[in-house]
């Protein structure tokens, strides 16, 4: 008996000693490791890494660029059912513990030592700490650091902030980070619209998001969802009736939810991609895709939509002049299987719909996913067919689009184009479109395509002459000319389709874009003088200018052409185009001018005649607003240009083919690009200020006869003449 008592007493003393030793060792270890803990300030200062959001001038989202698909939602906007689902599934005692759950840790340790089911014991606080401050390595040191940090973080920022971080940072599969992104990805909903069942599905994902999700494994998803619902019932977050309904609710996945959440409006893709490229170039891709913040641009979303739509319509009409492309496919049977790959919309279709011809008589009845559409014979008039049956057969697959006159059969055009709209005072890019559709090609022709400028370059030839003392009434000889190019070289003769107009005014030469008289003017002025004028305006030219370049063979981008014409709109002040809004009011007063303002005013006056008495008169018939413009058409009609401006805007349109093949016969700047510009100016009239140019000091006006240039009180044009000697700006 004494031995037993002695043994028990000794064992108790030994156990107590071992316990004290263990506690002492633990305290010593904690004191040793505590100085090595990372600073928790990054958790306190946490903000979501959502990449870069690009906004229009009014705050409209143009696009979001992020390496992780995440949409931040603050705690106050997360529905309680979502919070409760995650807490029940991951950390039932979350609201009562101090960052760690000792009971759960002990239970997990005991189970692991017994060789039973491996249990996790990490609280939500610990998971936040691990994800933000620690590495995922599985060591005792890392686990102890996690526990110590979780206690500190829990005390420092509180439960609600921890939940906010957790629900926005957790990876939930299919590229979605956080509950808002996951709600869009799986259900196509805002997080505020989730049902109890859907909230439980999201809460089922953190443990194995790449495997257990409704896209990859519905069976395991349902098992895990039901477990979460059971935990919600056990914790008192839902009642039996709600549990019974939710556990039987089918999980319906809306495929494409993630793409829908990320999607940029088709019309916005050109400017937002141009901004993205600029940001990556200046900030680096790491910053842009992880933590670039919000970037507000100068883009006007309404004007951008109008520009995109009018460009698409104009390119379709231009392409139609080359003939009907035929159906996308044929021989499709009824009922239509809309999952057939042959019925997938081609790249560039955007809001157009794929349809299958159900009947073809005088009109055509076309079946689409959304119902039947009638295509009238009148809408097919451009094909020279009088009835649909002469063009279509039952089972033909076609595209249906609305170009402004109801449903029509359309095709992805083989021609391309670009639009640029600038505010000349600030250089703000108000709209930019780089092609028929960025869905078809991300190549931005507004900024990346170098094309021959055609006659839009001539404006700077005539500006050179006006700075040297010419005026709109100065006579020029418009007859064929040969230019010597040097020993052993053949004379250069500009293309001529007629014998010339004889003696004409400088105004008529530019309004009608005459080649021979322009070359004579260049010859008199000198190539160096013309090149220097163009460069001052902002046109990027090769080192040596040739006579053919003076007629438009020099290559540059539509944006660069807009930049040069903005110099004219500004009265001679050059400014760089930009997507960055100016801070505060903008004034050109006090800025040095690159040009004689009188010469610029005279040029603008001459170019006003292009739309009602020159090469764009057909496209602008009935247009009664003041606008200066110049058309351009290159050799074999490979490029068609329309550059226009007023004191408050610049609008440039280019049309051509990526393969540089000629456009259809008859294509020209005035009728091809000019009509697109007319559509933008008409439909976007509220976004343009059509103010007249002010007359600069040192000038007076004279009424003259347009044809002869002679002063005439009954004449049909008002010319600006100098009252002082010209001062050539260098």
**Strand-residue fraction?**
5-15%
Mean pLDDT level: 88
Overall radius of gyration = 36 Å
Shape: elongated
Distance between the termini: 118 Å
Helix vs. strand class: alpha+beta
Parts with pLDDT < 50 across at least 5 consecutive residues: 16-23, 256-263
Give, in spatial order, the strands making up the sheet with the most strands.
8-7-6-9-10
CATH homologous superfamily caption of the largest domain: DD-peptidase/beta-lactamase superfamily
The description of the largest β-sheet is:
5 strands, antiparallel
Give the CATH class of the largest domain: Alpha Beta
Query: What's the number of structural domains?
Result: 4
Kindly report the CATH topology of the largest domain. Answer: Beta-lactamase
Reported CATH architecture of the largest domain: 3-Layer(aba) Sandwich
Give the strand tally.
21
Number of helices: 24
| Helicity range | 25-40%
What order do the helices and strands come in, and which of them pair?
Blueprint: H1 2-33, H2 41-44, E1 52-55, E2 61-65, E3 69-70, H3 80-90, H4 102-113, H5 124-133, H6 140-157, H7 159-169, E4 176-177, H8 179-187, H9 196-203, H10 218-234, H11 240-248, H12 257-262, H13 269-283, H14 285-291, E5 293-296, H15 301-320, E6 353-360, E7 364-368, E8 371-375, E9 397-402, E10 407-410, E11 416-423, E12 428-433, E13 451-452, H16 458-467, E14 475-478, E15 502-505, H17 506-511, H18 515-525, H19 527-537, H20 547-553, E16 555-556, H21 558-569, H22 597-608, H23 610-613, E17 628-633, E18 639-646, E19 649-656, H24 669-683, E20 699-704, E21 717-722
Parallel strand pairs: 1-5, 3-4
Antiparallel strand pairs: 1-2, 6-7, 6-9, 7-8, 9-10, 11-12, 11-19, 13-16, 14-15, 17-18, 18-19, 20-21
Helix pairs in contact: 3-9, 3-10, 5-6, 5-7, 9-10, 10-11, 13-14, 15-24, 16-18, 16-19, 16-22
